[in-house]
Amino acid sequence: MGSGIVIEGLNIHLGGKWILRDFSLTIKSGEFVGIIGPNGAGKTTLLKALLGLVPVAGGTITFPGTDRKAAGSSLVGYAPQSRQIDETTPLRAWDFVSFGLPHRFRPWLTGQDRRNVEEAMRVTDSERFADKAIGKLSGGERQRLFIAQALVRNPQILLLDEPTSNLDPGAQENLAAVVHSINQKLGITVLLVSHDVNLIAKYAHRILYITKGQYALGTVQQVLQANVLTRLYGAPVEVLKVGSKIIVSTAVADNLKTSICCHDNPEQGVLADVSL
Ligand SMILES: Nc1ncnc2c1ncn2[C@@H]1O[C@H](COP(=O)(O)OP(=O)(O)OP(=O)(O)O)[C@@H](O)[C@H]1O
User: Fold this and answer.
1) Is the CB of 73 inside a 6 Å radius of any atom of ligand 1?
2) Which of 105, 176, 251, 261 could form a disulfide with 198 if both were Cys (CB 3.0 to 4.6 A apart)?
3) Nearest to 163 by CA among 139, 180, 184
């Protein structure tokens, strides 16, 4: 079961500049939130703040509904943005996943440890390459292992930083489906950073759109609106509807992909939950 996240008045100042200012939002237990926005907007910094890895200049982060009774469980599992693995690395996929276990560097594993590794590999559909060397696996296969490693301590929240970058469209879709299934079947709260709005629009319950100094949280229909994006970017952004898809003008929105897949008949002007 997932934990909720409540952020109130969060301020983060790094390298002489404000990255997040007066940032407040609530994420419900079991929710899947896609985080999107241009390079340098503060997406990774937000994940690191949730992990307690960056200094906070003000505000609070709490995790209501946390249940940490299960032995060996953790609150947050994290798969960071980029991890280079040399193709000659002589490490079995199974062993790589097991490095996410607590006390992994003691010389033995318990039966429960082994079951946790096997379950994490099962839910990420990576059991079939458990015995292969990680360096010989494809990018999509490695991403499944990174997620499995983040899951091996049964977290209540899963933070994934651009897990689909550098994957071909088919592998992106497969990986997003795996994350969706983890969220649906295990009830884990998921925050996934991506530059691919297609995937986020398809699977996330809500989108958190961050630009430098501004943000909006809401459903796809609430956030992917010309007036909302124009306000976030501080310059005109067009949102066009073509059949079941929405096309966003990239003229001012750096890193925003041209084509955004959304639902049929998006509701108009519903901004009740949007924080600006
Ligand atoms: N430890 C740090 N010290 C100083 N500045 C930092 C630090 N960490 C991040 N920053 C700066 O904070 C800003 C936000 O960085 P962050 O990595 O959160 O952006 P992002 O939205 O994840 O970008 P991208 O999409 O490129 O990954 C950037 O300008 C970055 O240079």
Assistant:
1) no
2) 261
3) 139
Within-domain flag for 70? yes
Query: Over the chain, what is the mean pLDDT?
Result: 84
Can you tell me which atom of ligand 1 is nearest the CA of 255? Answer: 25
Is 251 part of any domain?
no
Checking if the pLDDT of 140 tops 50, the result is yes
Expressed as residue numbers, the domain containing 27 is 5-225
User: For the residues 136-163, what does the mean pLDDT come to?
Assistant: 94
Residue 187: CATH number of its domain = 3.40.50.300
Residue nearest to atom 7 of ligand 1 (CA): 14
| 196, 219 Cβ separation under 8 angstroms | no
- Tell me if 158 sits within 8 A of 126, measured CB to CB: no
User: In angstroms, what is the span from residue 20 Cα to ligand 1's centroid?
Assistant: 10
Atom 24 of ligand 1: nearest residue by CA position: 39
127 within some domain: yes
The finding on whether 165 has its CB within 6 A of some atom of ligand 1 is: no
Work out which ligand 1 atom sits closest to the CA atom of 45: 18
Instruction: Report if residue 256 sits inside a domain.
Output: no
SS (H, E, C) 191-231: EEECCCHHHHHHHCCEEEEEECCEEEEECHHHHCCHHHHHH
> Global pTM?
0.86
Ligand 1 centroid, distance to 162 Cα (angstroms): 14
